[in-house]
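Hey all, sorry for the wall of text incoming. These are the two entities for the joint prediction.
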Amino acid sequence: MINIVVIAISAVMLAFVLVWWRWPAFRLWTEAPKYFMLRQERRFDDGTSYSRPDSKTRDPE
Amino acid sequence: MTQRNTESAGELPIVEYGLVRAHIFASLATLLISATFGILVATKFNFPEFLGGHAWLTWGRLRYNHTQGIFFGWLGNAFIAFFYYAVPRLANRPVWSRNLGWLLFSIWNFAVVLPGWVLVLAGFSKPLEWGEFPHIVDSFVVLAFILMAFEFVLPFLKARLSDLYVAAWYIIGGIIFTMLAYPVGNIVPELVPGARGAAFSGLWIHDAVGLYVTPFAVAIAYYVVPAATRRPIYSHFLSMVGFWLLFFVYPLNGTHHYVYSAIPMSAQKGAIVASAYLGMDVILVVANLLLSLRGSSAAVGRDVPLRFVWIGVVSYLVVSLQGSVQALMPINRFIHFSDFVIGHSHLAMIGFASFIALGGIAHLWQRIPGTRYNERTMSWAFWLLAVGMSLMVVDLTIAGLVEGQLWQSSAPWIESVRAVRSYWLIRTLSGLPIFAGFVLFWTSLVSGPKTSAVAAPLSKYEPPEDPASFEAVAPVSRQLSWTRWLSYANVIAFVAGVGFFAFSFLVLAIIPGKQLEDEIKRVAPATMPKLTASEQRGRVIYGREGCAYCHTEQIRSLAADVRRFGAPTEAWETKHDYPHFWGTRRIGPDLSREFNLHSSDWQLTHLYNPRFVVRDSVMPGYPWLFEGSPNQPTQEGLDVLAYLQSLGRARELSGLEQQESADLPSQAPDMAVMSDASARATPPTVAVPMVGGYSLSAPILHPASESCDLQEEVGRGASLFAANCASCHGSPGKGNGKASASLLPRPADLTAARFSDERLSGVLWNGITGSAMPPWRQLSAEDLRALIAYVHALYSDDPPSEQQDAKLVTSKALFAAACASCHGNTGAGNGPAAAALAPAPTNFHLKQPTEERAWKVLEDGVPGTAMPPWKNELSEDERRALVEYVRSLYRLPQGDSPR
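and here's what came out:
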């Protein structure tokens, strides 16, 4: 059982490291979501998300 | 449906702020209720009679509601509130449907939490850890998770992989994994018995934390950290490595709750290795989160919600490393079942999950327009919670170490309860700042200035560290077009979810289950009895009242366990246990070998009010199982009694015990252990059970012969007597303690007879079969000597008058005719009938009753024993002659000092 667990986890880790190491484009690509998240955060925080006149979910007040 | 169409580039998806608010208020309301349950439960450790006597308010039911309330009510609502806020931002799409959202809200709170609480208090529950709500509620939980999948997973359906932030992965993964794990953990252990069922429930115990609490809490942390600092996380790649490892490794941890159990060692060791890997994974995740805060320490100090999250992240690291270490066998054997683990779970649920959830709520609350937010009270809430949580965790950790130390020794179980009472009091008190912190947290959301605009002006945002990289993502995404199938994140998460779950299921449940099944077929006696209908009903009540949360039913393969409780629990013994009651905590002793350990009257008295027989017990009483007194049990009371007396019966009747004793090489006599003055602190090297069973090697202990030493022993004996014996024998030893009214035969009046050292040593070592007197050989030899000295001191000398020879001959003949069949010709208690009697007839060579006592016994007999009244059989003169005669039989044995 230990062997199964160790081999399986090692395989997962190795796969991650290999892809990251061998493929620079992947490194770039895999970091993209953190920028997307921040961009979205900016968009929402500028207030438009709850200032749209047609929004049914704007603040009840 | 809210808005199914994809938003145009400039248009933002709708955020269901109404649902966010509703779930936040529900989360805080249920948090306060759950915390109240927790404080009541903690208080009962110090004041067991507090709110006692009412079935609805008993410890077990309140404890169920405490954990389930935190799990579903508080954390569930907090997580869902966060999903409503974050999913539209992360998916750039609204949630599936507002109406579905309100349906989910209603189901979660009015079909899961509220009825779950009421049903548990009313006695409808299932005794599965983290799965105590009854099956009817489970069906709504599963339905709610299906709705959650629609509401929160489907918006990501068309999300590009390059847009899918790690928090989204955790949300998707958590929902899908929990949807799979929940039914397995809550239904399978009820269908698969004993050890095999434990393998499955071990999965859920850990999946509940690992696949539900952890992913959603980590999702909040990954969201709040960059949103509050306006900087991207350190490495999204590392965050994804952490994500996949967590979901792969966490389900493999489950069996580490059953180390040294009957579950195949290969599965146990697999779980231990997985636990070590999990620790490494958490180091990775926490390092990534803390590196994301580099250069933002001022923000952590300034922004209270971020501070909450920061504490949560640090607690996550500590609690995970603690968990990995706890799983290691040398540590596990020492701290498992103790308060150390309770400290660990509170660090996980308060320090990690609740701090992050509170931080997430406070963060998003400020960004909902029109809400109020009071930073000052929020800061107070933070400090109250931080202080309370730290105090609680440190206190419980130390308490666990104290318990672990005492459990390794041969000290009686109750000493571990006495030793940590002050720690339990501190734990209860530490709940007060925590509760106050929760109240202030809520206050800070409804007081203070109104939020009318976004909290953070755009100008405050820092640009991405490497804009070039950011811009280069699109071409890279195009290069990865061959992986188009990968762009369906839901597909990946679902396939991986099913795959990982199936893997853990196979490795930790199916394979060990098959091994256990084969073992059971091979080892179980063909005639192993099933539980009777009454025992089965008793088992249900036992589960309903939460008994398994304080008493384990698994003796681990450890010398300390075996010595204290008996042979290790084997898988075949549990083959009729639906569900298993192995337990993960010992406040009271293990009950696996309860068969023949205590008499029925002791059990009933103990159930009615444990303190009647064990002065310092913290167990709740169950008076609703009786009609006003311990000797008037209801059918339910009798059912519980029947169940308790069935525990260990299968093994006892199997003959294995006798076979194993015969196979064992000659062991060192028990006394070799007990005569050692340091026996209390040093575990014996020979595994000799300290409770239960009859041991032929009863030593004869003699109190000190020197007067001053004897005085000291008597003083010490008085304290020991008051702590351990007075509840039955009464404080002056007159046999009139609280329990005496319901025990039959009544506890001995120790002032009414002189006992030899041999007699007292034998009784203390083996108890008295057929009575409620248990063996006390777990006490050290010093303590036993002191007790003997004290009992001697209770007797005021009453020398028998000299009998004339002629009268003696008459009395002897009378004794031979009336008494010898039981008491033996010489009065040594070894007559032909003696072997079949329990309690055994008195040996008058070792016990000399007072004249008054002997007369009373001859008049009235001894209820609960074979001794009949002789009032109508013998004349007064004959009885008086017998009294004189039996008193003359006492011989001062060699070694006994005349007192």
